[in-house]
Design brief:
The complex is a heterodimer of chains A (113) and B (113).
Chain A (H helix, E strand, L loop, with lengths): L4 E3 L2 E4 L5 E6 L6 E8 L3 E9 L2 E5 L6 E5 L5 E5 L8 E8 L8 E2 L3 E5 L1
Parallel strand pairs in A: 2-11
Antiparallel strand pairs in A: 1-3, 3-8, 4-5, 4-9, 5-6, 7-8, 9-10, 9-11
Chain B lengths: L3 E4 L2 E5 L4 E7 L5 E7 L5 E8 L4 E4 L2 E6 L4 E6 L8 E9 L6 E4 L3 E6 L1
Parallel strand pairs in B: 2-11
Antiparallel strand pairs in B: 1-3, 3-8, 4-5, 4-9, 6-7, 7-8, 9-10, 9-11
Classes of the chains: A mainly beta (113), B mainly beta (113).
Chain lengths: 113, 113
């Protein structure tokens, strides 16, 4: 079974731009969640989608948004990029959501200059 | 602030020795999970232990949970160089406005050959 696929692997953007990250979950997994990982803040929960609906949300500004498609693939968008948005963005899928093991992709490394 | 705090922050041992990592958390939980992360890559799920369980084993891994002390420990027996990674605990919080999986700060384990 193919694992969680995140694209692109690396991304360099400038302040003020916007970016879209993509995540393809494991086949059959309906829950997709997103995390931001930085050296200073560690792993922080962004949001979780289940069957195309945002089910849970972390404490991030509205510049961070996401969506999930009918095939469970998910995208995350960050608008008006700031230097502090530089991070490893990780996507995880699971069968039932946050009460079951998460399967992570290898992440997208975003650098904002 | 982080829900989970791991201790120690870093641990260096020799191959064949046992490694113990501890996780403390602040609020009541539904479950606690342990993950491993190799440098710059996604997280790999190790064990999920529910709040009504006290101990769980998986191969060379042993996890304990003490809900009265709000703490958990991960024991890796007979460590190998391939166990070198960062280890995170994650606590599942349910109820209220948002369900969340909150990651701890991580323990960096180095196993010397």
């Amino acid at each position: 079974k193919a694992g969680v696929t995140q694209t692109p692997r690396y991304l360099i953007k400038t302040r003020g731009q916007q970016v879209t990250l993509s995540c393809s979950p494991i086949s059959g997994h309906r829950s997709v969640s997103w995390y931001q990982q930085t050296p200073g803040q560690g792993l922080q929960f962004l949001f979780e989608y289940f069957s195309e609906t945002q089910r849970n949300k972390g404490n991030f500004p509205g510049r961070f948004s996401g969506r999930q498609f009918s095939n469970s693939r998910s995208e995350m968008n960050v608008s008006t990029l700031e230097l502090g948005d530089s991070a490893l963005y990780l996507c995880a899928s699971s069968t039932a959501g946050l009460d079951s093991p998460l399967h992570f992709g290898n992440g997208t490394r975003l650098t904002v200059t | 602030s982080q829900q989970g705090e791991e201790d120690p922050q870093a641990l260096s041992i020799q191959e064949g020795e046992n490694a113990t990592m501890n996780c403390s958390y602040k609020t009541s939980i539904n479950n606690l999970q342990w993950y491993r992360q190799n440098s710059g890559r996604g997280l790999v799920h190790l064990i999920l232990i529910r709040s009504n369980e006290r101990e769980k084993h998986s191969g060379r891994l042993r996890v304990t949970l003490d809900t009265s002390k709000k703490s958990s420990s991960l024991l890796i027996t007979a460590s190998r160089a391939a166990d070198t990674a960062s280890y995170f605990c994650a606590t599942g919080l349910y109820g209220g406005a948002t369900n969340k999986l909150i990651f701890g700060t991580g323990t960096l384990l180095a196993v010397q050959p």
